[in-house]
What does this fold into?
Amino acid sequence: MPFWYTPRVALKIDQDHARFRHIVRGRIRKNLRKFISKGELIGRKGKDQVSIPIPHIEIPRFRFSDQQAGGVAQGDGEVGDPLGQGQEGPGKGKAGQGEGEHALEVEISIDELAEILGEELELPDIQPRGKSRIQMAHDKYSGIRRVGPESLRHFRRTYREALKRQIVSGTFNPNQPVVIPTPDDKRYRSWKTSTEPAANAVIIYMMDVSGSMGDEQKEIVRIESFWIDAWLQKQYKGLESRFIIHDSVAREVDRETFFRTRESGGTMISSAFKLCKKIIETDYSPDQWNIYPFHFSDGDNWSMDDTLACVDIMKQSLLPWSNMFAYGQVESPYGSGQFIKDLREHFAADGRLVLCEIPNKDAIVASIKEFLGKGK
It folds into this structure.
């Protein structure tokens, strides 16, 4: 096999693989809402691989029957007569030896699913507020040196050094301009590590786990929170996530507890807002961090006094500190749904607050677009 043939084979394989991935992404995009609403994906991390079933694509081809069985243009018949007996649908007929229909499962990461979600919803890239004091290291090729690996050899500088040497030594022939570098002529790229401030963000999830929030409502909140987190992970290198659950009392929990907890009780939404404010004051200076509070509830609060306390906290601190404050209200047969109405009344003209009603799982994707489509 010629030495130049292998790269061509590799290129063809890469092209075929890219085409296959393109087909897979198209199938996933077509059924995106079904994949996104799967609760079993909750808790996975960005690089985790998940299996996605897609319909098997059968390539058309001719199949020849036995010679004794007859075929087209053999035997009696009239124009329009069917060529053979039709096949029964899946799940019908007796047991046999024939091959069944199979779905093809492909491995895809949560990050890639989040990327497909962003493409499908046409989510814009977020423009961070500013740079934080946290430094990120970057390697930059900015110099030349005499030693190094062949993969970093600088062709032009090496050629120049060899040409200079041959001209000085009188071995260069302009009529036959052959330049042959020696080891002393070789030059290699060198790098230095530089640091620059990185834009960092924190997303603070708050979930109502009171008695009026049923298991279905809590699952909707967890699924939506998971995919919002997956998308923002792609936008920020230093995204941190904090989790708050509340009934009449709020407490901070870890990721596992947030996605698995089952609690009940009364509802005081201000308890979550106060804890959110405390977390920001303690750990996330608003001039150094991009801050995203997300609160999910069925809108059933304890009293109007507590709702007014929430409004005051939002006006005085949470809204001014945040890139965006998002409130998602899930529909519950037990909740009054009043809280979103009160927020609309007090913050009708404030673009920093994004409100969305989420009646069921089918509305999750549209709700994510509503929250993240502003690019804040």
About this structure: Strands lie at 49-55, 103-109, 135-145, 188-197, 200-208, 238-246, 250-253, 289-297, 325-330, 353-358. Residues 5-30 form the longest helix (26 residues).
